[in-house]
Amino acid sequence: MIEPTPIARGKAIRYGDFPTLCDALDYAATCETGLNYFTGKAELKTVLTYKDLREKALVLAKRLVKFAPKNARIGLAAVSTPDFAIVFFACQYAGLVPAPLPLPVTLGGRGSYERQLQRMADTGDFHALFCPATMEPIMSSALNDQAIPVMTFDELDNLPMGSSIRPFGADDLCYIQYSSGSSSSPKGIIGTQASVSANCHGISKHGLKVVESDRATSWLPLYHDMGLIGFMLTPLMCQLSVDYIDPQDFTRRPISWLQLISDHKGTLSYSPTFGYELCVRRWREDRELDLSSWRAAGIGGDMVRPEPLTEFQELFGTMGFSQGAFTPSYGLAETTLAATFAPLGQGLLKHTIDMGRYTRTSEAVTATDITPLEDRRTFVACGTVLPDHTIEIRDFDDNVLEENKVGRICLKGPSVSPGYFRNSQATEASFSKDGWLDTGDLGYWLDNQLVVTGRFKDLILWHGRNIWPQDIEWAAQAAAPHRCGRACSFAMGGVGDEKEIMLLLECRTRDPKLLDEIYKTVMGAIRLEVGVPVKLQLVPRSTMIITSSGKLSRARVKAKYLKGEIIDLQNETPLQIVTHGAG
User: At what angle do helices 306-316 and 273-282 cross, to 10 degrees?
Assistant: First the structure.
């Protein structure tokens, strides 16, 4: 009977102070820790110690050195299996640049996935693509018109063996990470050995303050920065054991994630808000859990929504989940992963502001007793910036703003990517020559902690007001939470005040009476809480398009809507679209 790797390293802990990933694995291989892969029922399936990972990666690296020239890009299907870790690190020892690729289930349909894969292969100029045998047909089909070989993991063992390795140096590349919101033109974010090392050090030493007794647990996909950097590279950089459950298994059995934490005394685990929300919805009181070991329950990858997190805290607090365990943070793939962390033990620091005042002056002023309920909006602080990094809140003239003034979040530091692979136009749009990154997010300072308010491009300008689509979406979901799923709001048609504000709401019923009740309830809530005219359409489950990190892609849902590809449950036909100009 196999046993998972232990918590104890057997060697002194090091906090990511390595010049390269190869150096980090060389040290981790001297420890007792490693990676553990579990089934959807939280049963141990495979163990890969860091020692075994290094040995297998070195053997494969000698084959890859003969297979491809240095710095060639390798598309790599990011499955949650030992094969992915072995091939990823074999690329590091062979001097090849892996580009972790999303899996078909995340992109909503074979045709859509194949088009996405083709664009990634084009922008990354792949030398080859490696994948499990089960994925070879769809990947070969996607690249049918391109001279890019698709090879299964098993076939790599048949490559000719070379005599030496060619490891990356401290000044070399590390990987290409495709941004989760990429659609028509995927942007390959460059990760360097230096930026990855800097971020892993900041996360482990300062953000999460890793200690000897820590153990990581993850269901996050490895093609997204929160899964790849947060729960494969950072744990390896500080020699942590990690317990994995496949993302698909998590969506089917989210409580298995909590079961792993309970069974193996996990202390560090992250999720977007929706992961915690899913656990609350699926809890059946059919087992006993002990979550008292979980000291840092991180939240990242999307806007931090306080209501679902509060529900999780109340439900699982009876099972040992600490009130201060929640650790909101902020980051993006362009900064490798993390930029800020809430102080450990702080929990959810909420700030309710007067949105009426915010709309008029761009100030985040604390709501008072006389602030109308419909003008109140609660945000969660995402903590302080990592050492050696700087964040500035700027207006659109690049003036640095003072506390409580909302503006663009700009960031500088050693974790920031040098830009997008072979995409100078996108790089120049986001990265300045002196090293600053314009994140595209808006936020403000609250007592030296960053509060993120949303994406600038998602703002809806209506009659002089700044309307946040998430305000409309959250109001809709709150009005009928048990019968409705995701919501998506966007503006379309016309210019200026002639825009029409759309709201699509997923429903888990087709009963006409229930749909009519949902429609009336939600419309009433929108009028009361948001105060803008909205055209509501009730749509089937799984209508929304979600990025690899679990974020709603409003732009892609809007495009789907404009093509007439969304069903109206109250009419049971694709929506009939009439456009009035550019959307």
Answer: 50
Dihedral sign computed on CA atoms, order 417, 382, 304, 283: positive
Does residue 79 share a domain with residue 190? yes
CA neighbours within 13 Å on the CB side: how many for 266?
29
**pLDDT value of position 303:** 77
Say what the pLDDT of residue 437 is: 97
- Report the first-to-last Cα separation within the chain, whole angstroms: 59
For the stretch 97-115, pLDDT in tens is 999 998 876 444 677 788 8
**Residue 196 within any structural domain of the chain:** yes
Identify whether 113 is part of a domain.
yes
- Give domain status of residue 493, yes or no: yes
CATH of the domain at 524: 3.30.300.30
Q: Which of 23, 330, 336 is nearest to 195 (CA)?
A: 336
**pLDDT attached to residue 67:** 97
Dihedral sign for Cα atoms in the order 232, 236, 237, 239: positive
Predicted pLDDT of residue 184: 53
Q: What is the mean pLDDT of residues 406-422?
A: 96
How confident is the model over 557-578, as a mean pLDDT?
77
pLDDT per position as a tens digit, 228-282 = 999 999 999 999 999 999 999 999 999 999 999 999 999 999 999 989 999 999 9
Q: In one letter, which amino acid is 396?
A: F
Q: How far apart are CA 334 and CA 179, in angstroms?
A: 8
CA distance 393 to 384: 13
Stretch 529-550: mean pLDDT: 81
- CA-nearest of 494, 490, 499 to 544 is 490
Q: Is pLDDT at 580 greater than 50 in this prediction?
A: no
Q: Give the 3-state secondary structure of residue 394.
A: strand
Helix (H) or strand (E) holding 80: none
Report, as an integer, the average pLDDT of 172-183.
79
Q: Which two tokens stand for residue 325?
A: 């365990």
| Residue matched to tokens 């365990």 | 325
Task: Give the pLDDT band (50/70/90) at residue 207.
Answer: very high
User: Both 547 and 570 in a single domain?
Assistant: yes
Q: Which of 465, 517, 453 is nearest to 491 (CA)?
A: 465
Cα angle, residue 442 at apex, residues 439 and 447 outer, rounded to 5°: 110
463/568 Cα distance (integer angstroms): 28
> Within 10 A of 64 (CB to CB), how many other CB atoms are there?
26
Yes or no: say if 518 and 510 are a contact pair by the CB < 8 Å rule.
no
Asked whether residue 197 falls in the same domain as residue 64, the answer is yes
CA atoms within 13 A on the CB side of 412: 8
> What count of other Cβ atoms lies within 10 Å of the Cβ of residue 56?
18
Residue type, 141: S
Q: Contact at 8 Å (CB) between 77 and 131?
A: yes
